[in-house]
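Customer escalation, tier 2.

The customer says the design service returned an amino acid string that "doesn't look like it belongs to this structure." They asked us to rerun it and document both sides in this ticket. The original structure tokens are below, unchanged.
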């Protein structure tokens, strides 16, 4: 059986297809299904939870949709490009159904949740068999049963946003065995004017520390070496449940989980960066000095229109404090160009800031007008070509900064976590890995040449040169690997 490739699912145009999984010996097969996961790592955790429930109930995952009784698509609905990608994948699977090559199509996740207020996805695409919203994921087995039992009446499963965090244990993971995403909360209580996340995923709900630790231990026992902490708003952690932010305490607890080597922090809102939090990150051997902090802009006026509740000077002060406090810090951020009302001077201020701050990792999105968001009611909407040109300009400014950072690492020795063999020609084997400076799927990688290595192995690598954003090196000491 040919496996579909696992590829980047975090950007439009890509989908993640899990590999086939055998059921426990002796368990009867209730049905076969194929699965497509779209969107962000938070959505990926939901996909893995659904896969775990289906496997535990006797449903067999296959790689070929044409060999499946039904297909499940866990969709993204964040921005227009994501929604169009989701629609395209859905239509592709509906075409297979129409041709008699699969039995049915179930659509789950953010797209149906986003469209529920607009008449629903079934009205737009009536050939879909069943729809499951974001918070209906734990009923996926019941929906699958309707498919295999021949129930033809369409079902829509929408549930209110939870007031308590869902349990993400007992997942069937589709990331490589040595790293996993750990969702520490659900939803978002921010009111950013450009964002539709709260409409789809509700208000922020903290996952209790004890539950996070139980899940981390489960993942470590399953071979995970790198925990990647994700949420809609990581630095809000604990505020709703404990009446105070408790990310620092959570991190200290996670630091003690046996088997975990790296803890990577993603989606840190530029608020609640206390001295305690910075000290916890700086003093830990496991928490990587890699922080993903989406800043979105630097102009105070633009930030106010975005309703980010942070100013330009406060942002600059935060970056300075982090650089001063955390050794070898790598900062990843994202910006939005062409937000309604953004003037030439405000965009120039953003360009100057990017040149000044020298972020090691950076992404840029042109503003996407999202129906139902407060930003749609703002004046000063800019033409699409202006938004895109500003995005390209900012990325062009960032490229030499990223190249210079990569060049500065030539001659250094870095611990590299091996992800997979590299598909390259030559007499010597090569491997794709990452050092602490790179998160999977979104950042660069380190190519390790030579050596009898394996995925999940941590090796010291001497960096010989850079190739654009990537690094190339060799294992420093063959006796010092694990």
């Amino acid at each position: 059986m040919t496996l579909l490739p696992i590829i980047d699912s975090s950007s439009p145009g890509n989908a993640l297809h899990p590999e086939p999984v055998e059921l426990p010996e002796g368990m009867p097969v209730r049905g076969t299904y194929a699965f497509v996961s779209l969107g962000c790592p938070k959505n990926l955790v939901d996909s893995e939870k659904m896969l775990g429930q289906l496997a535990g109930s006797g449903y067999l995952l296959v790689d070929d949709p044409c060999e499946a009784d039904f297909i499940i698509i866990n969709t993204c609905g964040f921005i227009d490009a994501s929604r169009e990608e989701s629609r395209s994948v859905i239509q592709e699977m509906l075409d297979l159904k129409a041709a008699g090559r699969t039995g049915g199509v179930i659509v789950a996740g953010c797209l149906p949740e986003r469209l529920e207020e607009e008449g629903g996805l079934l009205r737009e695409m009536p050939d879909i068999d069943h729809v499951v919203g974001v918070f209906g994921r734990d009923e996926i087995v019941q929906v699958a049963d309707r498919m295999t039992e021949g129930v033809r009446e369409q079902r829509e499963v929408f549930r209110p946003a939870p007031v308590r965090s869902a349990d993400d244990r007992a997942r069937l993971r589709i990331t490589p065995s040595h790293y996993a995403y750990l969702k520490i909360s659900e939803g978002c209580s921010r009111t950013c004017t450009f964002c539709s996340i709260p409409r789809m995923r509700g208000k922020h709900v903290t996952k209790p520390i004890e539950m996070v630790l139980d899940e981390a231990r489960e993942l470590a026992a399953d071979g995970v070496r790198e925990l990647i902490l994700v949420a809609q708003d990581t630095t809000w952690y604990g505020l709703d449940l404990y009446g105070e932010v408790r990310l620092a305490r959570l991190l200290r607890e996670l630091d003690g989980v046996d088997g975990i080597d790296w803890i990577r922090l993603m989606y840190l809102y530029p608020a609640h960066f206390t001295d305690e939090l910075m000290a916890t990150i700086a003093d830990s051997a496991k928490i990587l000095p890699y922080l993903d902090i989406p800043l979105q802009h630097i102009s105070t006026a633009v930030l106010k229109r975005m309703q980010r509740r942070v100013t330009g000077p406060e942002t600059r002060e935060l970056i300075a404090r982090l650089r001063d406090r955390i050794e070898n810090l790598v900062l990843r951020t994202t910006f939005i160009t062409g937000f309604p009302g953004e003037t030439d001077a405000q965009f120039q201020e953003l360009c100057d800031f990017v040149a000044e701050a020298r972020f090691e990792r950076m992404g840029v999105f042109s503003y996407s007008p999202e129906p139902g968001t407060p930003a749609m009611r703002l004046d000063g909407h800019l033409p699409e070509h202006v938004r895109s040109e500003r995005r390209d300009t900012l990325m062009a400014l960032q490229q030499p900064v990223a190249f210079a950072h990569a060049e500065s690492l030539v001659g250094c020795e870095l611990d590299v976590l091996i992800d997979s063999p590299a598909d390259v020609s030559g007499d010597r084997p090569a491997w794709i890995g990452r050092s602490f400076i790179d998160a999977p799927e979104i950042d660069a990688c380190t190519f390790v040449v030579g050596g009898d290595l394996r995925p999940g192995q941590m090796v010291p690598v001497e960096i010989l040169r850079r190739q654009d954003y990537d690094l190339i090196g060799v294992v420093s000491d063959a006796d010092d690997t694990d």
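Tier 2 assessment: The sequence is consistent with the input. Confidence is low (pLDDT under 50) at residues 1-14. The chain has four domains: 31-157, 163-292, 294-408, 413-475. Sent an explanation to the customer and offered a walkthrough call.
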